[in-house]
Every structure is written in structure tokens, then in C-alpha cells.
């Protein structure tokens, strides 16, 4: 399809899903019907968001490589994970503003307005995407037919284990902690006040945000791989602190939220910032989107498994074990990153493209490379 077509298509899918979610309604006012309508609508939104990962990130890495090679890492992080991480405090802020205006007696109005805001943002981006050009790297190196996948996996199997495995571990931890953060906080503060819970969530997501900037600052001098190891180490340290001292630390709500936020911030600093970057840098342009998409898909499998496992873990092992398991994932993440993730800090993506094309020629592949831009 190409970068531009993929970006425009995924944006339109997100807008469609958000619109359906805003207008969701159960037959004859049925709450069950509303739930399934929302499930369908959010599923469509999820498909669009899933398509965004490889399409937007690979485009961002290629554009940054062409315009500012020495600052490719920090620029990539600021236009990807920073925007993603900023969505947390932004969403909480929008919710609190709308809730304060509408009141707790009009929660249906609150969630519909919040969903509606989710239509405006992608529509704004769509205007620019309709006018964009694919990167020079992609126009020069795209392989649209007869992609030699067996040769791709033969060359990049080690990198795929690294990016897929690390992404699985990261999403296994961060997604359930994001989805259930409100539940976790409300269980600690012993207060069913939805506004108070949202305020603590806003603080939590705000504490997690500085990790994005620290990762952007460290990714060049420290290197991609070492920065990711540092972030997974934060899961190990803060996960163990919270998990082993859970009963005592939860008695002091601000202290619990700070340590919880620092664990989330470590995730942003390391795998949150670096996974998209290394998944975009580790593979040649012709197969960058495919390998990135595969890595992200394995990550989302980790997110689904982690989300499903979260409640059973709490019920059968205790609430502290959700944090201890995060620490265990941190240890495994360190090992996977050290053994399998390549460090492409400062390497021109065009150099890897040239090596990849030489590799294909040496293995007898003959095919058409490049695309014509309309």
C-alpha cells in the first residue's frame, strides 16, 4: 500500500471508530446493547491504532534520518512516545474538565464528550497526511512484490527475537497497569469518588511523563540498548519496592502513587522510548514496516494476555504480585535486550539498506525495488 496510503487509511479508521463510540446506543436503551456497541466501536478504533504503529513510526524514523541524522533518536521519541505518553494526562484532564462542567449526575454526557474529543485530534492530523510525501528512503527502497520473507527472517531472526520479545514484556506490564490504574488507585484510597480517583490518575500519568524526556536525552550518549536496559531495571527496582512493601506503602497514598509513577516513568524511559526506535532502526527500509508491525503485534499480544491475567493474579496471589511480576518481567527484559537487541545508535539507515540489498543479490533474489510517487 505504501506509507502515505497506510497513514491516511488508519487515520480514517480511527475517526470511524471514535465516531461510532460517541454515538453508541443500545436497542431500546439496553445497557447490554450499549456495551456491545461500544465493544464493536472500540474494536474498530483499535484496528486503526494498531495500523498507526508501523505506518507512522517507520515514516517518522525515515524522515528524521534524512533531515537530522545525529538527532534521529530524540526527534523520533518526541514525535512518537512523547505524544503517546502525553495522551494519558491529556485524557485525564479532559475528563476532569468535562466532569466538573456536567456533574456526576450526567456521566453519559461526560463519556460521550470525551469520546468526541477523540474524533477531533485524528481529523486534524488527517489534513496534513493527505498532503505528505513518502520518504526518499522508502521511494528508493520499497519492495512491493515478491518480498523474500525467508531471506528476511534468515538475516533478522535475532533482531526479531529482541524487538518482539522485549515489546511483549513491556506491553504485558504497561497495558494492564494503564487499564487498571483507576482500579488500583481506588482500592488504595478506599474511596469510590470518581473525581478523586481521576485526580490521582492525573498525578500518576504526569509523574510517568518525565521518563520520556530522560530517555530522549540518554538514547544517543548512552545508546539505545543500554537505555532500554536502564528502563527495564526501573521495573525491577520499583516493582520490588512496591511489591515487597505493599501493605506498608499503600497506607501512604501519595508515596504509593509516586513510586507507582516512577515505575511507569522507567517504562517510558527505557522500552517505551526505545522499542519503537530500535524496531524502526534495526531493519532495512523494504521490510521495516513489516518487521516493526510484527514486533508491535507481538507486543499487543502481551498486552492482551497481561490484561486478562491481571485480575486472576490479584485474586489468587494478591495485589502485591502484580508489581513483583512486573519486576520479574524487568529481569527478563534486561536479558532479552542485552542478548538480542542490536544497537543502531548513529548508524545511517541508508547503510543498512545497502547491506540488505547486497545480501539479497548474493542470495540470488531478483525483484523490483522502489516506487513512483504520484
From TrEMBL:
Gene Ontology MF: a single term: carboxylic acid transmembrane transporter activity
Signal peptide: 1-26
Source superkingdom: Eukaryota
Membrane topology: Multi-pass membrane protein
Keyword Nucleotide-binding attached: no
Subcellular location field: Membrane
Transmembrane region(s): 33-55, 75-103, 109-130, 202-223, 229-246, 321-341
Domain named Major facilitator superfamily (MFS) profile: residues: 1-345
Any Pfam family the entry gives: Sugar_tr
Keyword Acyltransferase recorded: no
Keyword annotations: Membrane, Signal, Transmembrane, Transmembrane helix
InterPro entries, alphabetized: MFS_dom, MFS_sugar_transport-like, MFS_trans_sf
Cellular component GO terms, alphabetical: plasma membrane
Record-given protein name: MFS Git1p-like glycerophosphoinositol permease
Native source species: Russula ochroleuca
Lineage start: Eukaryota, Fungi, Dikarya, Basidiomycota, Agaricomycotina
Amino acid at each position: 500500500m505504501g506509507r502515505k496510503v497506510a497513514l491516511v487509511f488508519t487515520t480514517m479508521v480511527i475517526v470511524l471508530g471514535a465516531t461510532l463510540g460517541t454515538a453508541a446506543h443500545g436497542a431500546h436503551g439496553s445497557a447490554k446493547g450499549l456495551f456491545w456497541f461500544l465493544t464493536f466501536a472500540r474494536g474498530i478504533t483499535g484496528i486503526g491504532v494498531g495500523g498507526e504503529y508501523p505506518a507512522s513510526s517507520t515514516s517518522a524514523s525515515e524522515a528524521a534520518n534524512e533531515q537530522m541524522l545525529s538527532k534521529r533518536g530524540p526527534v523520533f521519541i518526541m514525535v512518537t512516545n512523547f505524544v503517546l505518553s502525553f495522551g494519558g494526562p491529556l485524557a485525564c484532564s479532559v475528563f476532569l474538565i468535562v466532569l466538573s462542567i456536567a456533574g456526576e449526575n450526567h456521566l453519559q454526557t461526560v463519556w460521550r464528550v470525551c469520546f468526541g474529543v477523540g474524533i477531533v485530534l485524528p481529523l486534524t492530523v488527517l489534513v496534513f497526511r493527505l498532503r505528505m510525501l513518502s520518504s526518499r528512503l522508502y521511494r528508493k527502497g520499497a519492495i512491493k512484490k515478491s518480498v523474500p520473507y525467508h531471506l528476511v527472517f534468515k538475516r533478522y531472526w535475532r533482531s526479531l527475537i529482541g524487538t518482539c520479545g522485549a515489546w511483549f514484556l513491556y506491553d504485558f506490564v504497561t497495558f494492564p497497569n494503564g487499564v487498571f490504574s483507576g482500579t488500583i488507585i481506588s482500592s488504595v484510597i478506599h474511596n469510590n469518588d470518581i473525581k478523586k480517583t481521576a485526580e490521582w490518575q492525573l498525578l500518576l500519568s504526569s509523574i510517568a511523563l518525565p521518563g520520556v524526556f530522560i530517555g530522549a536525552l540518554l538514547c544517543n550518549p548512552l545508546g539505545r540498548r543500554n537505555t532500554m536496559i536502564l528502563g527495564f531495571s526501573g521495573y525491577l527496582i520499583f516493582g520490588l519496592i512496591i511489591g515487597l512493601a505493599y501493605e506498608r506503602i499503600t497506607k501512604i497514598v501519595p508515596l504509593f502513587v509516586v513510586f507507582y509513577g516512577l515505575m511507569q516513568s522507567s517504562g517510558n524511559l527505557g522500552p517505551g522510548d526505545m522499542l519503537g526506535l530500535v524496531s524502526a532502526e534495526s531493519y532495512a527500509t523494504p521490510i521495516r514496516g513489516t518487521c516493526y508491525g510484527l514486533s508491535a503485534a507481538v507486543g499487543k499480544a502481551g498486552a492482551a494476555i497481561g490484561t486478562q491475567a491481571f485480575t486472576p493474579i490479584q485474586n489468587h496471589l494478591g495485589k502485591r504480585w502484580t508489581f513483583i511480576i512486573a519486576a520479574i518481567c524487568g529481569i527478563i527484559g534486561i536479558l532479552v535486550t542485552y542478548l538480542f537487541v542490536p544497537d543502531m545508535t548513529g548508524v545511517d539507515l541508508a547503510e543498512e539498506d545497502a547491506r540488505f540489498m547486497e545480501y539479497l543479490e548474493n542470495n540470488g533474489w531478483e525483484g523490483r525495488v522502489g516506487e513512483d510517487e504520484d
